[in-house]
Structure formats: C-alpha cells, structure tokens
TrEMBL record:
Protein name: Two component transcriptional regulator, LuxR family
Modified residues (4-aspartylphosphate): 57
MF (Gene Ontology): DNA binding
PROSITE patterns: HTH_LUXR_2, RESPONSE_REGULATORY
Source organism per UniProt: Goodfellowiella coeruleoviolacea
GO terms (BP aspect): phosphorelay signal transduction system; regulation of DNA-templated transcription
Length: 222
C-alpha cells in the first residue's frame, strides 16, 4: 500500500508524548489504531490490529528496562511484514542487532531506530515512519556512531577502503544511493561501484535476501 493512511500502533509510557505523537500522525493522514503505555499492551495491540508499522520506546513499564525493544523483537519475528520504529533516548545495541538480524532474514517490513532528542522536525519524524512502512531501514547517525565506537575485530571490515567505509556508514543511516552520491560529491555510478565492491569484500555477492541490509548488519556488528 502507499504511505497515505498507514495503520499505526504507538507505544509510549509518557501520556503527553503519546498523545502528541498520535495527533501528529493523524494530522498527516495516518491512523493510530492503538496508543498504549506498556509492552504487554503493545504486544496485544499489534497481534489484534495487524498494523502497517509500530512505534515504540525502549524502556517501558513495568520494569523500565528494555521491555519495549524486546517486545519489538518478538513481534517482528511473529509478524515479519510489520514495520518497526524504535523511538527512544537510548542506544540498546544487543536488541538493535536482533532487529537487524530479523530484517536480514525476512526483509519484508522496514526498520528504524531514532533518538527522540535528535528528531529535529515533525515532518522528519513522519517521513521516517512512512519510509519504514515502505520497507526502508532508517538508523539515526548518532546510533551508528555509538555502535561504531564499540571495539571491532572483524577481518571482513578490514578489507574495506576508507571511502567504502564512508559509503557503508551512510547506508547504515538509511540513505539511498542518490543521497550518498550527493553527500560524498561523487556520481551515482561511483556509488554503485563502491557498493558492489562492498558486497564482494564482505562476501555477500551470493547471499540470499536483501544485500544492503546484510552489508549494514555486518558493518554494525563488526
């Protein structure tokens, strides 16, 4: 389906933020079919409503640990076509990787991980929701940077040139080829060549599934 009129389940324990996000999404023509405040209610709502996309925080009642993200991982497994947007203040690497693994296996619904305090405009948030519902991967650049600061031992990543790492980092942010070309001031053909080299060097040339997500997963898990 198109982006207009998406069916959305929203999970956020802050009543004011939950109502505000719901109002924004409705204003742009989407339908918040359930707005809930805890992970248990989120799971029930997604199972019942079968939405196009769910939006959740990481830390949710009752424990305020990682209930929302764990629920997203579980729901993604049960509903592989479900778009998932994690909208949070926290970078929880382990479960972010699990979501990416599910994205790699199924490659149906899109996936996003955004930090609340870095969403600079209402339209930016709505655009992310629509892109994820359309199957895209949208990861906040700050999330990518924090994950990259973790120690890497992967010999696969050592095969990449500095420019190829730049391209892969931009892919990890969810950028399309045209946006990468504009950012790096190179041609679209050059970007395609870099991505082809990345796939080859990361041993993804013969892999099944969506190569772009496989490459990003390898990069972030390195």
């Amino acid at each position: 389906m198109g982006n207009a009129g998406l069916r959305i389940v929203l999970a956020e324990d802050s009543v004011l933020l939950r109502e505000g996000l719901a109002a924004v999404l409705e204003r742009f023509g989407h339908h918040v079919v359930a707005a809930v405040g805890d992970a248990e209610a989120l799971t029930a709502a997604v199972d019942e409503q079968q939405p196009d996309i769910m939006v959740t925080d990481v830390r949710m009642p009752p424990g305020y640990a990682d209930e929302g993200l764990r629920a997203a991982v579980e729901l993604r497994t049960r509903h592989p076509r479900l778009g998932v947007l994690v909208l949070t203040q926290y970078v929880a690497a382990t479960y972010a990787f699990e979501l990416l693994e599910a994205d790699r296996r199924e490659r149906a619904g899109g996936l996003g991980y955004l930090l609340k305090n870095r969403v600079g405009a209402v339209r930016e948030f709505v655009d992310a929701v629509e892109r994820i519902a359309g199957g895209d991967t949208v990861i906040d650049p700050e999330v990518v940077r924090q994950l990259l600061h973790r120690e890497r031992t992967s010999s696969l990543l050592d095969r990449l040139t500095a420019r190829e790492r730049e391209v892969l980092a931009l892919m990890a942010e969810g950028r399309a080829n045209a946006a990468i070309a504009e950012r790096l001031c190179v041609s679209a053909a050059a970007v395609a060549k870099y991505i082809g080299a990345i796939f080859t060097k990361l041993d993804l040339s013969g892999a099944e599934g969506h190569h772009r997500v496989l490459a990003v997963l390898t990069y972030l898990r390195g």
